[in-house]
Structures are given as C-alpha cells and as structure tokens.
Design brief:
The chain is an alpha+beta fold and about 130 residues long. It has a six-stranded mixed beta sheet with strand order 1-2-3-4-5-6. The radius of gyration is 17 Å and the shape is globular. The chain starts with a helix and ends with a helix. About 10% of the residues are buried. Helices cover about 30% and strands about 20% of the residues. The chain has helices at about 1-5, 10-20, 90-105, 120-130; strands at about 40-45, 50-55, 65-70, 75, 110, 120. Helix 3 (about 90-105) packs antiparallel against helix 4 (about 120-130).
Length: about 130
C-alpha cells in the first residue's frame, strides 16, 4: 500500500478507509471476476429481475447500477460522485450523460452508497446542478 501511495496509484482517503476495514492488509485477496459484461447483464432471480447496467460516471470508468424494474428501485453506489482520485474533478460531459441515462430509467428510489435512499427527482436535481 505504501508503494501504491508513492506511485500515485492510491490516495490517502482510500488508504485510511482500507486500513480501518482491514487490520492486516495481507488479508486482502483480489479474485478475478468469473462473469464480465460490457453494457448490460440481466439476472433472472425468479420473481425479481436484476439488471446490471454500466452507466457513465465522473466517479469511475467502471460504474454499474443494479436496476430492479419490478420494484422501481436502482442501486447506484457512488456513481453520481466526483473523481476522488483526480482531485475531486467532475467530468461534466460524463455527468450530463449520466443524467440523461438515469432520466430514461423507470425508477422511484435510488439507493446510494453512503446516504439514505433518495427519490428519482432528488438525484436528478442534484446532477442538474452540474449541467
């Protein structure tokens, strides 16, 4: 981790929280994914469908939301945040694209990564401040 900080591959913020979560960094084991997808993966769970959708994001290039159409709920994690690894830069083109993509999804509630669930209008209003 020290080497990753020195090289700039990692930031102090992540280091602090990783160390809070793991008392021994050597306990972290990165396992390659067994399933990958490019834009969308649909998982039939019986009475519920999980749509894993890659969307544009200023936060990271690999942001994925989970959409549950039967419940009109999406799990968005940190997709609406800025880029912590780039001095909190917010790519406005990616933010605008995310706004457009979320506008087209039929959901009522968004479950974010670090806050209470929010209504669709509230997340769109937040993003619209950057447009």
């Amino acid at each position: 981790m020290k080497q990753r900080l020195i090289s700039g591959e990692e930031i102090d913020f992540a280091d602090e929280y990783i160390r809070a979560e793991y008392s021994k960094l050597e306990d972290i084991k990165v396992v390659p994914a067994t399933i990958t997808f490019n834009s969308k993966l649909v998982i039939d769970c019986g009475n519920i469908t999980c749509e894993c959708i890659h969307l544009s994001s200023a936060h990271s290039d690999d942001s994925v939301i989970i959409y549950i159409p039967e419940e009109k709920v999406i799990f968005i994690g940190d997709i609406y945040n800025d880029d912590f690894y780039n001095n909190h830069h917010r790519d406005l083109k990616k933010t605008e694209k995310l706004y457009q993509e979320l506008s087209r999804i039929d959901f009522d509630i968004a479950v974010a990564g670090h806050s209470k669930p929010v209504r669709k209008g509230d997340i769109l209003n937040f993003l619209s401040k950057f447009l």
